[in-house]
Automatic annotation (TrEMBL), chain A:
Domain Exocyst complex component EXOC2/Sec5 N-terminal: 43-378
Entry's family note: Belongs to the VPS51 family.
Subunit description: Component of the Golgi-associated retrograde protein (GARP) complex.
Gene Ontology BP annotations: endocytic recycling; Golgi organization; Golgi vesicle transport; lipid transport; lysosomal transport; protein transport; retrograde transport, endosome to Golgi
Protein species of origin: Patiria miniata
Compartments where located: Golgi apparatus, trans-Golgi network
Lineage of producing organism: Eukaryota, Metazoa, Echinodermata, Eleutherozoa, Asterozoa
Keyword Ribosomal protein tagged: no
A matching Pfam family: Sec5
Protein name, per record: Vacuolar protein sorting-associated protein 51 homolog
Biological role stated in the UniProt entry: Acts as component of the GARP complex that is involved in retrograde transport from early and late endosomes to the trans-Golgi network (TGN).
TrEMBL record, chain B:
Name by which UniProt lists this protein: EIPR1-like beta-propeller domain-containing protein
Biased amino acid composition, Acidic residues: 326-338
GO BP terms in the entry: protein ubiquitination; regulation of cellular localization; regulation of transport
Annotated segments matching region Disordered: 320-347
Keyword tags: Repeat, WD repeat
Amino acid sequence: MAAPSRDDMDSEQRRRRKHGMLKMYYGLDDEAGKEATTDPIDIDGAHFDPDVYLARLMREKRLTELVDREVDMVKQIRSLDSDMQTLVYENYNKFISATDTIRKMKTDFKKMEEEMDRLATNMDAITDFSAKISGTLQDRREQITKLSSVHMLLKKLQFLFELPARLKKCIEMKAYSQAVRYYVKARAVLLQYQHMTSFHGIQQDCNEIVNDLRMILREQFSNRESSAKQLAESVDLLLQLKEPPDELCDEFLSHAKEKLDEDLAEIASQVDPALVGTQQPDSTAAMEGTDETRPAEKLMRNIPMDILEFIDSSCNSFLSNISLLIASYKELFVDRQATDSQEQEKLVEVAHAKLAEFVNSRMQQYFTHVDERIKTEKSTVDNSLLVRALDRFYRRLLATDRLVPQLKIIERASAIIAQCGHERALFYFDGLKRHFSECMTDIRQTLCAPRIAGKKDKPDMVDLLNTTTTSVVEQLKVILTNLKAFIASDITFSQTPYFRGPFCQDDVREGLLVAFFRHMYSASRDLCDGVGEKGSTTAPALILVLSRLLLDFESTTISQLLVLTDELFPIDNRRSLTQTSVLCAEAQSAAQTLLNHYVKVQGLQISQMLRKSVETRDWLNTIEPRTVRAVMKRVVEDITTIDSQVGALYEEGIRKAHSSDSSRRALSYSVSKQQQQRMQRSYASSSNFDTSLMSNIQKLFSERIEIFSSVEFSKVSILTGIVKISLKTFLECIRLRTFGRYGLQQIQVDTHYLNLYLWRFVSDEKLVHFLLDEVVGSALHRCLDAVLMETSIVEVICDRG
Amino acid sequence: MWVPVLQIVNMEDDAPVIYGLEFQARALTAQVAESEVIRFLVGTQSLKNENQVHLLEFDDDNNILNKTVFLHKDGEIWHISSSPANKSILTTCYNKIIDSKISTCAALWRIPSDADPSDQDQEIQDDSSAYARPLEVLCRLDNSDIGNFISVLWEPQGDGSKVLSVSDGHLTQWDIEASGSEAKVSSSAALESKGHPKFSAGRWNPHHNNTQAATANDTTIRGWDLRTMKQCYTIENAHGQLVRDLDFNPNKQYYLASCGDDCKVKFWDVRNTELPVLTLTDHSHWVWSVRYNQFHDQLVLSSSSDSRVILTNAASISSEPFGHLDEEDDDSEKEDEAETKPKEPIKDGLIANYEEHEDSVYAAEWSTVDPWLFASLSYDGRLVINRVPKAEKYKILL
């Protein structure tokens, strides 16, 4: 396929070249040909110079080449000759017909020449005639032109003279725009020729009429019943009448203001029904007789709308009005096409300023009302309505904001919404606080109740703890879910960063959750501080439950709740957040404080009992001990109660290794035996020198006992704390008294009894031994007639008790 | 037992000086009339042995305590106080057992005149107990009507002619003859309230021309006008439990410190008795004594049966809350201090915790001579002399 196409192309090329040569021959050379022909040695070119070419060939080529060239040339000439022959042959007919045509043309042209000559003579004649005619008609034409211009002028004048009447008629027909158009047309002329009396008269008439028109227009403008279109028309016309635009703006706005103020008053009445009560008399007086439905309406008003309804109605009335107002205002004053651009700019500027001021003040009022209304929503628990109302509010304002973006209406609206969110959070926070204190009251009450009801002390504590924890956590969760409504995805304002961020972080997480935890800590701590000041009655058990509660919070609840909150209220910037670990640490320290306090209170209660019992007795003149004193039994009982109380909530804790129960009594006996021996020895040796040497030496080797050290979160540690405080008190009281023989023996019996029962509560039984040793030792020192009782008798007495 | 001493030595402060008595002891006082030498008086408490009064003189330069022992034959001493006018006169409250009944009596004593410690140093140190001379009885206060004595208080900065006694149910004012040989009841007031309340402590107010005193019974603090012997104020429930001791601020006339069994030290403005102005909870057991420093009232010393002595800074309620200011009611003793101007206010809080004692510390007293020195006495008879830490001292002085 390629071959024929190449042949085609070749033949095509050849033909073209031939054509080109023919063209050249006939002087029809195209541009390309022209360019190509400048070279004299181009054998195909038009400017070919055989001499130059030959000379050049002779000079440049060698003989063989010349011979070759000659052969080549001859060949070419031959082929050219044959080509020419074929060409001539091919075009022979054409040549013949061309000659015929040329011949025919020659004859035709001769004929044409004659006719053309005739035409020329005719034309000359026509020209002469026409010149003559125009010469004769010249004067008339001038006259006609003059006449027609006079006619025009007269028509105008007539218009002018008729203008007052027309205007009147127009006004009668209420075709105000027509009238204005007429007047505007004539105004310039009248102004120009006002020095002529007649025109002056007309002008005056016109002005009077136009003034009337103005009045009418203004009336229409100021008529509150007139529609927006009418308003727009009148404003437009007034502007055309060159009324000062700022005055018009003012007037327009002041009319609008009346309407909006009505709306605002309506809104205000919704916000504060009491306010309406005071306003009612004037308005009813004004409307008396005109409105029969008034009482019903009044009744309606007294039923407060809910927030959604309120926002809806306020949006519908006020916001749509103000939007309409802004739109029409813009249309009237801002978007008008005026001839003078400078004037226009000025106008726009003024108009904008006025609008801004006006809208600002109205919106301000509106926002104040809405704000107040929203604030009255504080007490409701359900959020969805409020959120929906806020959303609607926001969306409507978004639309309004688009009309006047420079006023930043939406920012203020956002501020109101943010404020509302903040207040909701605060409200819930208050609610939580209340809930927490109610929980505490509940605990207190249930703690009081079962003592009367029965002996179900143990499960009660756990139940109490669990119910309190659950109720607090549930309450928190409910509140979080409620607040979640604020950032639901279908709520428009929730998507804006300046609401979402601060709301999630400052209001919900920090303001609600973290603040609530802190409140719990401080409220619990307050309980501790309160006691002892003015005989406050905080039940120790409450403190115990709270401490456990806080400990539970520390271990799980806080992190759970924080995670939940973070899920519900995602926060981007986590830097300024209170860390979970910090909260947990605070919880633990609060729990520690509470527990320390519990130990202190319980310890002091038992101490008080012991102190009174020691102080009120005359130890010098007491009878021989027969029983353990009742107060000791009471002490053991109380400690047992505390033990079960604490045991319900706290783990056992670590004890120092001690012997098994079965050998317990024997051991304690042997200890008391040693102790007795030691006492007797020390007593025996105390006749003359340092009596306290023994105990001092013993102290030297025993650890120093912290009477009140911080307790651990375990039952044993708590009980140890209480026992330590109690026994130390016992010791101090003993030291303040002086004993007779039986007094000492009574103490001996009592301490033995305590020794029998207290070891099981403490972490290190040596502690009890040591403190009781000290007690007996001190009693020995303070005894005038120190004779100790037989250990066997002591045991018998204790067994009996 | 001596380990704490070594620790203190390491801390650039002067080491505490420890002195051991043979007997148990509760009663401690500074020798008030002495203005040259640092001296303390200690009364022992022993049922079976003859009780003693130790006159201890502290040699500041050599850090040595010199003692002189006097016999107090009448019984174990529960309280001791020394005359502000005559350094050889002192009073004690002591237990006496008559017909197996204990009664606490009080007496005025004179230290034997030739027992000037500076002369007797050598002999006393050689053989202390053997060479003990008895105190001379000046007069005994009659307790037949007023019950057991708790304490006898000398009129602050007085001429030694007036004492106030606090006994079980009475607050009694006594006039003492110039020779000291006779004491007469000049006025007395009974504590009247539900039950059978007993005073637990009392303190003479050094302000208002010494016309006021305060007492404590159970949890209540009462203020008394000594001219009419009527109560002028009460602080109900001042402490959660028994109030053990009281002290007046030497520079601020309405300020009072109290301590008690609830392990707290509280400071009161007696014009407003609803709430304490400051509460300290550093102790872990009953607080037995609280003492204002007589020169720098921001320094408060408290001792407790947790065997600790705690020095606290209560600058915010002191007469110099913002450093040194000239007070209108400057004591004459404050003159040396007048040149000093602390630049920045010192913060409240615990200054030092002294743990040299092994047993309950029932008394701690400031020296009346050296404003930076104090003594504390624990039940096991150990007396420790300590100083305010130098850092704190410079903070106050500079």
